[in-house]
Amino acid sequence: MMGLERTQSAEHAVLMDGVYRYQRHIYDLTRKYFLLGRDQMLDALAVPSGGTVLELGCGTGRNLLAAAKRYPDARYCGIDISPQMLETARGNIDRAAHARKIIVAEGDATNFDCQALFGFDKADRVFISYAVSMIPSWQQAIAAALKATKPGGSVHIVDFGQQVELPPAFRRLLRAWLARFHVTPRAELFDAAKLAAAGEGAHVEARTLFRDYARIVVITRANGR
Question: Is the dihedral of CA 196, 192, 79, 208 positive or negative?
Fold first, then answer.
């Protein structure tokens, strides 16, 4: 079973490298117009002074850099399955003022070891920004994020909603365009978050943004668990 998981992880890494081999150079310029809700998610992190923040699916490092500006006293780490994206992320981080506070590493969001990658067991805040819709075993990624969160800490997720309150023609065009990049909005996101939280005695807050264009989930672990 572990061999199958490693094979699937390797195949997904190759796929993501292929999708973003060239797009990574213009990713941040183009995605800011439709990856809505990212800044709202970052504003709500409320990272404690001296805390540790982990991003799953860190891509170009844009969100880690934005979070470091908001909460300069924290430590930041990110993983991504695509070596191509990590190459861009490291370049962006090296050019930024907060370079020493941010470390990124190659890893699978569904199965990773914080201690081996970064030297700590759990983070105060874990977030996933528009990556759930690209991870085949996305429910496992949510469970892994919660497992990597300290007691009293929280997992923050933002991703595409179902656009149920938007014109059908817009929804069809958006879905067709997203499919070209292997992006699938997860209709069951809220239910999956509640299921993962129930197993850990955690609390879930979920809401839609922009007429369900995007969805935000916050899973907060109880202290002492």
Answer: negative
Question: Is the CATH number of domain 2-220 2.30.29.30?
Answer: no
Cβ atoms of residues 83 and 17 within 8 Å: yes
Band (pLDDT 50/70/90 cuts) for residue 195 is very high
Could you tell me which residues come within 8 angstroms of residue 96 by beta carbon, excluding any fewer than 6 positions away?
65, 68, 102
Q: Which residue has the tokens 């970052």?
A: 42
- Average pLDDT rounded to a whole number, residues 159-175: 94
Give the predicted TM-score (pTM) of the model. 0.86
CA–CA distance, 144 with 110 (Å, rounded to integer): 6
Angle between helices 83-94 and 62-70 in degrees, nearest 10 = 40
Query: By the 8 A CB rule, do 124 and 53 touch?
Result: yes
Report the SS3 class of residue 104. strand
Question: For residue 27, is pLDDT > 50?
Answer: no
Higher pLDDT, 20 or 159: 159
**Domains of the chain, residue spans:** 2-220
Letter string b/e over residues 63-72, b meaning 16 or more CB atoms within 10 A of that residue's CB: bbbebbeebe
Write the CB contacts of 124 (distance below 8 Å, at least 6 apart in sequence).
47, 48, 51, 52, 53, 74, 149, 150, 153
Q: Please say if the pLDDT value at position 165 is more than 50.
A: yes
pLDDT at 35 over 90: no
